[in-house]
Amino acid sequence: MISSSPALTVAPGAAPAMLHVLVVDDDEDIRSLICQYLHGYAMSCVGVGNGRAMREAMASRQFDVIVLDLMLPGESGLTLCKEIRSQSSVPILMISAHGEPIERIISLEVGADDFVSKPFDIRELVARIHSVLRRTQAGRQPAAGHGSDKPPRQIQFGDWRLNVGLRQLQDKQGVVIPLSNAEFRLLSVLLQRPRTILDRELLLDLTRGCTVDAFDRSIDILISRLRHKLQDDPRNPRLIRTVRGEGYILDAVTSCL
Questions:
Q1: How many helices (H) and strands (E) does the chain have?
Q2: Residue 37 dihedral angles phi and psi, to the nearest 5°
Q3: Quick one: which of 94, 88, 184 has its CA closest to 136?
Q4: pLDDT tens digit string along 211-253?
Q5: pLDDT score recorded for residue 97
Q6: Contact 36, 146 (CB under 8 A)
């Protein structure tokens, strides 16, 4: 199911930060093999076989990325992905032996950041892990400097506030609404260009999302998820409006705090 290649070598003196990866796959051989190879790419890996063990692992330590199998006994990968996303913005990379387009679409809908079909070369998995993490880091506001008391930049729009530094969406009562990394990137792009029509191609380019093809629906899926979290009626959206044949527009006055 997984093809291997020699691990990347690191030049003397170069000490990359260890990445912490959680692999959730009920096939013990596959998850052991993934963890074995990821160790060779400067990654610390924990492998578990079900949702219960996943929760225990996440309660005991923090992970930089989660590799989650779609087809799990009991609680499916989709159910677990949705649960994780309701509580955390940790990047989620879904893997599946089927790889049907509908599976990829549904995975994105429930909050996955990327999708890899089995069988895969371990180098592809490593590349996608780094790609997801680069997109995550690119969306974060650079620190103002050590010891700075300057608060993270925030953007107010309507009854909502996006804390860019903390990557948090808050309603008018201050309740935090969890965002996936892809949702955060898309909302940030829309807020940077309020009351401007943005077509799907431009949004895909600006958000630097998952691998796309001519029939990709990832932007439409992300828009739908954002509308749901912003309580924007999908039948008559007032905040993120669809401009037929052109794209989407964030119809709100924004202010930086």
A1: 8, 14
A2: -70, -40
A3: 184
A4: 444 345 778 888 999 999 999 998 899 999 998 888 899 999 8
A5: 84
A6: no
